[in-house]
Specification:
Largest interface: B-D, 205 and 206 residues
Shape of chain C: globular
Strand content of chain C: 5-15%
CATH superfamily of the largest domain in chain A: Type I PLP-dependent aspartate aminotransferase-like (Major domain)
Number of domains of chain C: 2
Bound molecules: pyridoxal-5'-phosphate
Distance between the termini of chain A: 60 Å
Helix content of chain C: 25-40%
CATH class of the largest domain in chain A: Alpha Beta
Order of helices and strands of chain A: HHHHHEHEHEEHEEEEEHHEEHEEH
Oligomer: heterotetramer
Largest sheet of chain C: 7 strands, mixed
Number of helices of chain C: 16
Shape of chain A: globular
Distance between the termini of chain C: 20 Å
Helix content of chain A: 25-40%
Order of helices and strands of chain C: HHHHHEHEHEHEHEHEEEEHEEHHEEHHH
Radius of gyration of chain C: 25 Å
Number of helices of chain A: 12
Number of domains of chain A: 2
CATH architecture of the largest domain in chain A: 3-Layer(aba) Sandwich
CATH topology of the largest domain in chain A: Aspartate Aminotransferase, domain 2
Number of strands of chain A: 13
Amino acid sequence: MPFIPHTRADVSEMLASIGVSHVEELFSEIPESIERADLFAIPLGISEMEMLRVLSNRARQDELGPCFIGAGCYDHHIPAAVWDLASRGEFLTPYTPYQAEASQGTLQLLYEFQTMMSSLTGMDVANASVYDGGSGLAEAILMAIRCNRNTKSKRVVICGAVNPFYLRAARTLVGSQGVELVHCEHVGGRHAVGLDDFGEVAAVVVQQPNFFGLLENVDEITDWAASKKALLIAVVNPMTLAVLKPPGDWGEGGADICCGDGQPLGVPMSSGGPSFGFLCTRIKYVRQMPGRIVGRTTDSGGSTGYTLTLQAREQHIRRAKATSNICTNQGLLVTAATIYLSIIGLTGLSNVASASHANTRYVVDKLCASGLVSPTFDGSYFHECAINLHRDAQGVFDELTTKHKILAGFPLGEAFDGLESSLLVCATEKRSQEELDFFCRTLLEVLN
Amino acid sequence: MPFIPHTRADVSEMLASIGVSHVEELFSEIPESIERADLFAIPLGISEMEMLRVLSNRARQDELGPCFIGAGCYDHHIPAAVWDLASRGEFLTPYTPYQAEASQGTLQLLYEFQTMMSSLTGMDVANASVYDGGSGLAEAILMAIRCNRNTKSKRVVICGAVNPFYLRAARTLVGSQGVELVHCEHVGGRHAVGLDDFGEVAAVVVQQPNFFGLLENVDEITDWAASKKALLIAVVNPMTLAVLKPPGDWGEGGADICCGDGQPLGVPMSSGGPSFGFLCTRIKYVRQMPGRIVGRTTDSGGSTGYTLTLQAREQHIRRAKATSNICTNQGLLVTAATIYLSIIGLTGLSNVASASHANTRYVVDKLCASGLVSPTFDGSYFHECAINLHRDAQGVFDELTTKHKILAGFPLGEAFDGLESSLLVCATEKRSQEELDFFCRTLLEVLN
Amino acid sequence: MKSEATIFERSRTNRAAGAQVPEAGSLADIPSRFLRESAPLLPEVSELQAIRHYTNLSHQNFAIDRNFYPLGSCTMKYNPRGTHRAASQPGFLNRHPLTPVGVSQGTLECLFELQEILTIVTGMDAVSLAPMAGAQGELAGLLMIRAYHQSRGDEDRDEIIVPTAAHGTNPATATMCGYKATEIRVGADGDVDLDHLRQLVGPKTAGIMLTNPSTCAVFERQIVEMSQIVHDAGGLLYYDGANLNAILGKVCPGDMGFDVLHLNLHKTFATPHGGGGPGAGPVAVNGRLVPFLPIPIVGQRNGQFEWFGEEEIPKTIGTLSAFMGNVGILIRALAYSMMLGRNGMNRVADFATLNANYLAMELERAGFKLAYPTRKATHEFLITLDEEAKQFGVRAMDFAKRLLDFDIHAPTTYFPLLVPECFLIEPTETETKEQLDEFVKAMMQIRAEAETDPRMLTEAPHHQFKKRLDEVKAARELDLVWKPDSD
Amino acid sequence: MKSEATIFERSRTNRAAGAQVPEAGSLADIPSRFLRESAPLLPEVSELQAIRHYTNLSHQNFAIDRNFYPLGSCTMKYNPRGTHRAASQPGFLNRHPLTPVGVSQGTLECLFELQEILTIVTGMDAVSLAPMAGAQGELAGLLMIRAYHQSRGDEDRDEIIVPTAAHGTNPATATMCGYKATEIRVGADGDVDLDHLRQLVGPKTAGIMLTNPSTCAVFERQIVEMSQIVHDAGGLLYYDGANLNAILGKVCPGDMGFDVLHLNLHKTFATPHGGGGPGAGPVAVNGRLVPFLPIPIVGQRNGQFEWFGEEEIPKTIGTLSAFMGNVGILIRALAYSMMLGRNGMNRVADFATLNANYLAMELERAGFKLAYPTRKATHEFLITLDEEAKQFGVRAMDFAKRLLDFDIHAPTTYFPLLVPECFLIEPTETETKEQLDEFVKAMMQIRAEAETDPRMLTEAPHHQFKKRLDEVKAARELDLVWKPDSD
Ligand SMILES: Cc1ncc(COP(=O)(O)O)c(C=O)c1O
Ligand SMILES: Cc1ncc(COP(=O)(O)O)c(C=O)c1O
């Protein structure tokens, strides 16, 4: 009996104490009219050894060569210490830290996380996670609408090159609350500021670098949103903020809400989940922010300690009027990210960002030098870049995957009409010189 | 600077405090006449990321299919929890528990280990490890000579089928202390009790099951040793003792010293090391036993606690008169073994033993049924078995390794003259039915 | 134990974990207006400092791996290490979500199998693994209910009924779906008030959300009647699977009349709670909701596993996350169910229920008051400390804090709200009888203290890392990020 | 914190960690006289119980990962997690030692590279990685010295000279090699007494064992002269590499005149000490001892890495273990040296020495007495608490125990024996200045307590898991295994 510690003697004693003669009697309140479960189609249990044999074979089957896809999920190096620490039972197996006195470890760590994220994004406060970048965008939109006292409008403008996977999820998540998401077409890969007139707008969403890796004119967009009394929601990759201007500094007044996915910060790709979404905002909006928030306080002996705070925003207190229905979040990934940021440190994160950018640029320059490939869009990009292969990118991608086990990038045609010949490529700091060269060589071979 | 936390400011302040202007001055007592080191041939340092890239490639290069070699090192399943726990920094990174009050974790664990090993072997006491099975045998021999007050002889009889790798190492280790190791030839794979007259003998060494997997008549051998006033040293695989008669129960009086390698108890094969050697003995010989021993005692508040004890046997106290020169032992592996034994438990260990035996027997029976293969020796075996391929076993082994990535067993010709056509095969509980059948099929194909 | 300074206080300018810092790349091509002007506040510490800091912090947590943790509704049972190992293999961890299916058959096979297993244990017709936690499963479920009514042109239904005892996520989710949450009374015996239900249902009723066993920790005996009433009114039934541990392998929600449900894999399927998450909240539906399932789903085509998306499920409510949910957690849940098998699953409910009933009985014997003394306990049960509160001036929270001193995590307190001064106690099937007996002893000692020395409770905990923390101050004087002058 | 019961007390008949128990096989073919009659005393616990037990026990350990651990001579520096990761890969962990070289080139390349690196940093001609710890390296070294003399027909040499301050393994090893250990005096300045050396050497001298920096924590300045004297007398010089951390990348033992040495990879090369081991003690030799190196060694032949054994090294002293030593530890050491590189290695000695000299100076300033105040500290240094002992009636051990209350592990006490009431303090290069300053503060507070309230020391520790343990009772009333009636 895996995981069940009861001996026969235990069971007899316990049944005797309860005063029944068989465990089945404990279920007597379940009406007879409900059919008993039939699990016959599920195989019998196997040992950990056998389970690991099966799942190791499957895992091995999916091993591949170097990855040049980004598109919202990045293959960075994770220091060995990060998960050695995050996998400690004391971080892995507690619940949400409701009993603060018995959870100071996680609580202090979350307070440190909030500090790091606030500073990285240039915002006042951060929460302790939502599910992922997609749900982060959805929560940011709902929050912005609640926060914007200037208008009753539920219209939100989405700049053209916001991550389409985030947008797609956000559409589902906010879809039944009367929110109107206006997705502007990108112009040459970027947002054309102020070209359209949308009437009253609750918020504007812009991503930096945008999905194509291009740098948007975020200062102008921020000021434009402010001029329309709309809140500015910044979607960012937190890793890039080690070197890029933080949303809090955009334009005259800065962004109002900042969201994104924390995966680049020490979280394995793991098919895209579990990762974590983050939300940062101005202090004045903190009571509209969903998710756990940790505050520093004192204990009855006067010593500093940490506790969950502003719980009155949350579903377990506020119920139908809560800022969100989120309960379980992505705490363990936040734990890993906090440890990652501590180990990689200020210099490390900045170098990860610049090295990733330099690796991507190396690949792009080398490919373009061949004449077979050209940049899809003009202008500055960071860390990721769309390149035009001048033929069906999906076909090239498939050939590289099957023949060379290389993931060559994201074929943009999957998400954007008209970009069928473009590949979004990304080379993190983890890609070695040999891998970069091998990638260029094989891609050009296929194109030739 | 990997692992060094000093900032420039730290260095300046520290140098100022010391009163020197450059670190180099701290080395001024090293005579000028000694040439300064030249490490130029060593490459420059690389990051953890780069190091892992290189070593992952090498590790992957050495991955193989299923292993049917035993010969002193066994491919058992290790529950995931074992190394998750043993790798915790609190077990991984302390020194030997000299400061008992700050090391109760390791000390209590070692006390539990001593208990488990004593009970498994049927002996009174166990130490907290020597290096491996080979050094265990060497220490057992030296200890037996010290313990045997009946004779001044330093002659030790080694039964024929004792692990030749242990014996080879023991020869080196005891070689300069005037010990005479008399290795009797095996007769049909076993020890022929009492056939020889060796004169005065300090100890007799017998292994159960012996290197060929055969079950020796340990009761008779033990009684015979006793009759010669020689101490009986038992070499055992601790896993088998879940079902086989423990050395403490052999013959009339039992073995005097029991040694072996703990690798089967939760230690990965890892090219044969690190593993750990164990030593168990009668309480009357405990002061002659080398290695750390933990005792239970009380603290000044009257509460139960644990501490290293009988340290007067050891080199750091007794110096030239110590029972051994051992200092660093194999503590972490003992930690893993203790956790392994706790998780696998009484039933688990017994089933590992019987399942391994059954798997080996399945393979042997199936191969022999083909008519192409026959048992090398007659009689009962346990867990391992020598089979005769009736042709050069090394060649067959090589073919299976290269073509099928299967390790087919240990070609006995490497260690025993006259057994060139025999393969020592072993199938642990970890081998699946498909692996067993695949092994039989491919081996027979090669033989056909 | 000393308090641990924050990581920022350990930081020193220009210190770094050298082995982790890659060489910088050039940023010369990035116009300066895009670049950051001042450095963010990130720690500058050595690797050893970071390891010490977080190892020390970890010592300040209670966790299943260290403590009995009878947190009702949360199912804090053993999280098998083998499942963590299985999911932590490079082939799984290093898989990019946009990897083509042709080279992802290992992962997809795992997900497909899990879909099958969950379909069977819920007694439903199909499963989507997309939701990333229970609450997101609820959202997906209500969105499907909404889509269902809409697909039938039944546009006016805008109410979701939830019991007063329901978990907060239920009404909160209703709101997130644009529904009004209407509360229905729970009777003195813990069952929903059927008459009240009959009054509430009508043409506005989109559906009802129920847990069963309910958050009152009893099995809702009138479930079949309720199903009839709600269905007759044209509404659908949502099953909140947080308590599925109680009936795993016994009865299926599908056979109770539910149309849609979520499972909390981090509860019933033993994936670790991680100090707050991640979880996974797959949804299962019966035939009428299958067309609306969230995507992606793993299907089979020509002997290969494929992602089914909008093309195959055109009426889908859509995606819920950027990619395909918490795959790493799903693999752990699969690993767990492989080890349990059908025989192991049967035993989960048996032993969870045995433990709860035993503990309830022993506590009652020890003089504690069960909230529903005439009812059988399910996998959990409620006690009320109302009498103790009145007699000794101590509250349930004081009992809770004092329990910590016994190295026992407090049960869920003050939930559900309708039972005064309550403890919702869920021992789970992975705890030993000895542990339960220790809990009873601790509770008895605490009650004795309440009588003779109530400050032992009101000032508890005494032996934890901190004494009782001032939550009011935390909310009033918000201190949410560390600043260099904070200390 | 509660004391943790033994695992045996948690055990119950027929309990088991079900997911770990494979199906039993038949033993029908084994004659019953070979079988066990009664079951051994092994725990019968659930997986969760085992995890709780050992997690709880782990909380009762000091460790580098939690504490400053300035244990002199032991080099308790940071053990990089990356090296543990590197060595824990399936390709390395699952390699059977008898796997043919053709399919083991990854492992053999690692070992070959490590041999090369160690040859360079020691300034010797060849390395064998076979010894499993420092003490086994010593044994291998003396066996090679013995073989060398024998190979020259120089059979009468039966003495090994060791300084009085030498580590216990040195004389113990001499005995294990059948040698007589002769002790040589150490002068007041910590250097060996050269005149005494001249008296001792002669035709009986097989060799001398030295550490440099010595166990007096100073650099032996007359090493060149000593080498001359011993070599002139026909003896060889053995270098105990336990203190190599102090000179890594600065000077090589080979250039000081040593003929053979061991390294403690668990010290200088940062592999974890594991609560007692494992370590690895490779030996390096100069030309005249190369023929005698222990086997196996990795060589290259036709572009492939091979094991060299008796065939290639016919005069070898032989093997030291069943297989090829502690390979897993060797891979960690290689990983560490790859990350350091030659530049990193240079810095090890620099910063280890800087830390030691700084700490020595600050302690001296704070009024503590250095054992060799005229000397530079090396990577470690000695203080003597003799005056404190005389004045306040407290001993070095009392200081040591009281330090534990500051979450600092005690330095090495009472070693070397020739310095009364001494602390051998080795901070290592991976500790911060702040940590060293904290140590000084703690020492000052403890001395203040010694003056005003010596029982704070003599009854220390006060805040650990146990108060001071009765070692005398432990040795007199031996209780080495748990018995059912033990409690
Ligand atoms: C009854 C009940 N419903 C729903 C939820 C929400 O699930 P999750 O936390 O996975 O979002 C919980 C979680 O505590 C619960 O107990
Ligand atoms: C100076 C010295 N020599 C030798 C040794 C023995 O090394 P090992 O413990 O690796 O056997 C030590 C270990 O403490 C030491 O400090």
